[in-house]
Amino acid sequence: MQQPPDAQEIPPGCPAHGNVQLYGPSFGADPDGHYAHLRSFGPSAPVDIAPDVQVELITSYDAALYVLQNPASFVRDSRRWNALNEGRVPADSPALPMMSYRPNALFSDGAAHARLRQAVTDSLATVNELQLVRQTQQSADYLISRFSSEPRGQAELMSEYAQPLPLLVFSDLFGCPPEIGDRVIAGISGIFEGTPGADEVLGGALTELIALKRRRPAADLTTRLMEHSARLSDEEVLHQLVTLLSGGTAPLTAAIGTSSALYLGEEWQTGLPVEDAIAQSLWNYAPIANYAAHYPVHDVELGGRLLRANDPVLVSFAAANTDPKLTEHRQQLSAKAHLAFGAGPHACPAKDPAFMIAVTAVETLLNRLPDIEMRVPFRTLAWAPTPWSRSLVTLPVRFTPRTVSSAAEPAQAPAAQQHAPAEQRSAARSSQPSASAAPQHKGGMFSRFLAWTRGE
User: Fold this and answer.
1) Helix, strand, coil % (nearest 5) of the chain?
2) In which residue ranges of the chain is CATH 1.10.630.10 found?
3) Which CA distances in Å does 390 have to 50, 174, 243, 279?
4) CATH 3.30.43.20 in the chain, residues?
5) What is the mean pLDDT of the chain?
6) Using one digit for the tens of pLDDT, what is the confidence trace for 111-134?
7) Which residues, including other chains, have CB under 8 Å from residue 328's CB and lie 6 or more apart?
8) How far apart are CA 287 and CA 281, in angstroms?
9) What are the boundaries of the region Disordered (predicted)?
10) According to the CATH classification, is domain 109-283+340-456 in 3.40.640.10?
11) Where are the alpha helices (DSSP H) in 75-109?
12) What is the distance between the alpha carbons of residues 254 and 258, in angstroms, rounded to a whole number?
């Protein structure tokens, strides 16, 4: 078995004893340097993913594929986690919300996983691609309209565009009415920001949404999940919705931000399509950087490292995609051979819609603000100091101020508006202010977005 390198070989910012810490300012400042150091251990290395939480991190592309594609030896059910069962994981650890068991497809195996995943994939397959592009364009136009006409001609794209855009699209796809959509967005945003009580806000909103769809089914993802032949319980529907939200919005935020920065960056080759920027971000800046906890069902020796039964093994998609052994012949691989969407039975079921949303988001931004440019070089941008995702902290841009109005929207209304009950649509129309009155929208983001689509 390989031994850890000497202390003097440990890169600056990492502890000179114990495991490498995959969190905090030092990691955020140089994740690639940390991955390069970890490769000296072999195909995997012991790291602390959070204080007092040790995992084995796979950094090799081939080893990652072996783990991801070998469900007979590596399972996803985190109820096996030795340290957690023995009380060695701090109760307030930030790793717990990311790694604790939930009754969803992500943490299930075998027949249970197949049943839940089939319901998700079949429901996603009913999403109309053209409608999804229109929903994304409309959400993008709304967000751009909020900062595009400001005299300053500047914006911070992560907080003002990349973060809220997937939340608007998902709330619409789920068929949320305005008030529930506001709470869904507040809840999932709060979870990622560590806001106390955010779990309860999101759970309450989704529970109310499911009850609404039981009474009034509609053409949306929530209803399709509920009506699937797998006959999911309401609790199972709720957890699949949470998985789609958490597994879809944060990575999309990272992909939209990084791809925009790459396209606007000083080293981007003029004339290359937006799709190339998305692909490059998925290869070199995997939005989900380190995740997919697996638990060996028996001791496994992998490249000289012993992976002990029921100790968590995480996959570093970021390190695997940039594996030096891979980059030597990466040109010969398919452009989609990256692991940003995972691989094997738990590969992301929404990779095609996700890619489409990201491309549409970046293209709409460039079309609406044709002279947009970054205010700082790409190489100086800061990355969030978290192990889970590779996401920019900020993306400052400048442009010539211009007005983007709801007149630029496609003719088709958002799903949440299309399928609202007749009395709800009538009430919405009757409550619209007269042309001479200044509209006052006191609701949350989704309410304001829907009001904007109505020209209010």
Assistant:
1) 50, 10, 40
2) 109-283+340-456
3) 16, 26, 19, 15
4) 1-101+289-338
5) 88
6) 999 999 999 999 999 999 999 999
7) none
8) 8
9) 405-443
10) no
11) 82-85, 96-99
12) 6
Kind of pairing between the strands at 290-296 and 53-58: unpaired
The span from the CA of 309 to the CA of 311, in Å, is 6
Task: Tell me which H or E stretch contains 164.
Answer: helix 164-173
Query: What is the layout of strands, in order, in the sheet containing 373-374?
Result: 154-156, 396-398, 373-374
β-pair partners for 392: 383
Compute the distance between CA of residue 227 and CA of residue 217 in angstroms, rounded to an integer. Answer: 9
| C-alpha separations of 364 from 168, 260, 354, 408, 421 in Å | 15, 11, 15, 11, 31
Helices (H), 21-89: 25-29, 31-38, 61-68, 82-85
Torsions phi, psi of 431, nearest 5? -90, -5
The strand order across the sheet containing 74-75 reads 20-21, 44-50, 53-58, 313-316, 290-296, 74-75
Distance CA 182, CA 197 (A): 15
Rounded distance, CA 59 to CA 45, Å?
8
Show the beta-strand stretches assigned E in 336-425: 373-374, 396-398
Instruction: Name 127's Cβ contacts closer than 8 Å, sequence gap at least 6.
Output: 173, 221, 353
Nearest to 162 by CA among 122, 127, 129, 189: 189
**Number of CB atoms found within 10 A of residue 222's CB:** 25
Q: Which tens digit of pLDDT belongs to each residue from 203-262? A: 999 999 999 999 999 999 999 999 999 999 999 999 999 999 988 899 999 999 999 999
Torsions phi, psi of 247, nearest 5?
-80, -10
Position 47 scores a pLDDT of: 97
1-101+289-338 topology per CATH = 3.30.43
Share of the chain above pLDDT 90, in %: 78
pTM: 0.87
Residue 146 to residue 227: CA distance in whole angstroms: 37
Q: Token digits for 71?
A: 């469900």
Strand 154-156 versus strand 396-398 pairing type? antiparallel
